[in-house]
Amino acid sequence: MTLENKSSENKFPKLDRASNEHIKKFKKSKGAEYGDAVHKRKTDDADGKFGQGHLKKQRFDDSGKNFKNKAGFKHGKFDHQKRLEKPDWNKMRQDTKERKKKRKQRNVGGEELYDTFTKAVKLWEELRHSNCSKARRLDLCREVSQLFSGVVKVWIKQASGIRMAEHLVTYGDEKVRKLLFDEINSKVQILEIMKDTHSQHFLQKMLRHGNKEQRQAIIAATEGQVVKLTKHTIACQVIELAYSEFASAAQRATMMQEFFGPHFVYFKEEGIKCLADVLKKYPNKKEAVMKDLQKGLQVLMQKGIFNNTLILSLLREYLTFCEQQEKQTVIESLEDGLLPVIHNRDGSRIAMLCLWNGSAKQRKTIIKSFKDHMFEVATWDHSFMVLLAAMDCIDDTKFLGKAVLDPLMKESGKLLESEIGTRVFRYMILGRNTTYFHPDVLNVLKQGDCNPYSKKDASIRRQEILTHVGKGLLETILRNLEYWCRNPQWTLFLGPAMYALPSADLKRTAYEALAKHCAEKMPPEVNSLMDIAHSAKMLNYMIAKDVENKKNKMPLFSLLLLKHAHENLVKWLSCNRGCFLCVRLLETGVGRVVVAVHDLLHNHRSKIAKMSDTTKGAEILMQKLEQTKDVVESEDELEENDEMIDGDNDKTNNDEEEDNEDGDVEMAGDNVEQSGDEDNEESGSEDAEESGEENDEEAADENDVESCGEDDEESCGEDEEEEITFKKSAGSGKVSDSDDDSDDE
């Protein structure tokens, strides 16, 4: 018989001429019985002898001759007297109890064993209570185990019996466990028990509480049947427990080999621990091995039992070595069901592979499946790696911000309480920084850099993420500033985080908050920041970054520190770290900073000279002061100051105009000379036009202002330079207010 004919036999027969003849033949043989039944049903329904609800389908075979039901049918007749009789409810209840008792007796092995089972249940009720002493419990376990003798296989398949057996294994001694296990210690019985709903719990208890020999017997029974047992929805639980917790490395390898094809089911090979070893040893068998593995995994994913540790490890290796088209097939089936498995190490790697090899639409589907669980994903042991991979490969940063970044920043307080959540927070801000992430973690993330679907440059993506979380980062810094300044784990992060703020306004706010904190007077029992090694190192880092801030036209932390904390800086000279801090200020190369430091230390040179004999920092500071004594502010710095001051004055004028109801702001002559603001000239001319008073004196004033702005540039520059440079007031070195405003560019 050909394959086509064989497959056609399994299908339903077609309604052709042969089947019609078969139906006619059936009607002819059962014609009389069929016709009488139809006629009887029609006549009874027409006479109204019984309602349609009492009709039941008749059986037309030999077994239906004695058919009878509650309504009184027998041999096609209706018994009216049977229907009118009142039922005896007591008798019915008694019959129900007897049937229930017989059913229980049948389940436990017969009437004789039922009494023994009942006695065992009563003893079990006593031993399972928490107030039962250990000695009494052990005696009860031994007594109940004797009742189990010879019927273990039968009783552990019952709901009550398996609960008793679990307690015996948990609280009993080695003799009790041996007595129970020896009755089912064969491969056939273990495989049978493993597939039963109740009795499979007995094997799990034996794996947890049994000795080494008993565990080895259970694992050895699965040899050659691992693939079939893994596909079984009940037996897979025992396989999962045995593989993940109790199997040795060699046993795990043999269990995994059975998925690579029939050859490895019967011929186990040493040295093959994973799919990579098979493909390396047998490169010509790659197609056959991948096909066999695909068949096994496809069935498991369809049944929804791919969360097994063994299956996850196989699925991870399959995604690593299969072709791109096959990867797309797997991703389509997994894209919305990865949440239950990403807490596992292999599950998180599978999710990362799906993100790296999935299209933009599939990536969004994966991230959307984590909705309402984003905080849990960010704080689980292995799932946080999925979010790090998402930040590296998703080009749509707007979607990434709404789906991932915003939910995490809203709960940043709770996120920072978790050690793993802190990693995600730091990665959002600083990316792949080796100071905060182990090289092994970064090597795993680098595997997705060459994925075929990410087109945006990594630096652009990183900058867009920083722009999105900038305000939230600033709020977090200001909220935790006092703690972070003194905690050694956070001082390493605080400096780079402030430097990473994307805009000048955010940086200025953060720098000024830190500078004011440095200027605060601490009680005697609290150490200043300069007395704490890691805090002083953080301040030195931020001062060193002012060189790059100046190139990028960003606010300078050094100027704000000199403005707010100049008094504390003088006090810090008494310690070595304070001297090195001043050295760091001089090494910035910024003229304004160098001049301010010289002004600050002008009256303290003798003190520094005395300290130079015993303090290395003071010695280096004296050398730096001599080297930088001729440094002055450059013309570029003056021009930058002019632009910054004009911008700050414009902002101040706009605020004042909003406060005044009339909207007329008259600037005094001194303010006009200091700022040289052209907007004030325009406002003055508009007021003159409205009033209609045009005299020679006002014209002369306007000409004077214009001449100051155009013709007499040198004289105006001298006046402005006096406001820009640092005021020398008894060697205080305090930065003027105009210079503070000049940094807001």
How would you describe what is shown here?
The structure is a single chain. The protein is mainly α. Among the domains are: 111-393, Alpha Horseshoe (Leucine-rich Repeat Variant); 497-647 and 722-745. The protein is built from 46 helices and two strands. It has a two-stranded antiparallel sheet with strand order 1-2. The longest helix has 27 residues, at 458-484. Mean pLDDT is 78; it is low at 1-18, 47-76 and 641-745. Residues 1-23, 30-48 have a biased composition (Basic and acidic residues). GO terms for molecular function: mRNA binding. Keywords: Repeat, RNA-binding. Pumilio repeats lie at residues 183-220. This is Pumilio homolog 3-like.
Q: What characteristics describe this protein?
A:
745 residues, disordered C terminus, disordered N terminus, two-stranded antiparallel sheet, 46 helices, mainly alpha, 1% strand, Leucine-rich Repeat Variant
Brief synopsis:
InterPro entries: ARM-like, ARM-type_fold, CPL_dom, PUM-HD, PUM3, Pumilio_RNA-bd_rpt. The chain is mainly α.
Q: Give the helix proportion (percent range).
A: 55-70%
Number of strands: 2
Give the neighbour order of strands across the main sheet. 1-2
Determine Rg (CA atoms, Å). 43 Å
Oligomer: single chain
Give a topology summary.
Layout: H1 3-10, H2 17-29, H3 31-47, E1 73-74, E2 77-78, H4 80-84, H5 89-108, H6 111-127, H7 134-148, H8 152-155, H9 159-171, H10 174-182, H11 187-194, H12 200-209, H13 212-221, H14 226-231, H15 235-246, H16 249-257, H17 262-266, H18 275-281, H19 286-303, H20 309-321, H21 324-334, H22 345-357, H23 360-368, H24 374-379, H25 384-393, H26 397-410, H27 412-417, H28 419-430, H29 439-446, H30 458-484, H31 488-499, H32 504-519, H33 533-544, H34 546-551, H35 557-564, H36 566-572, H37 576-586, H38 591-600, H39 605-611, H40 616-627, H41 635-659, H42 669-675, H43 678-691, H44 696-709, H45 713-724, H46 737-742
Antiparallel strand pairs: 1-2
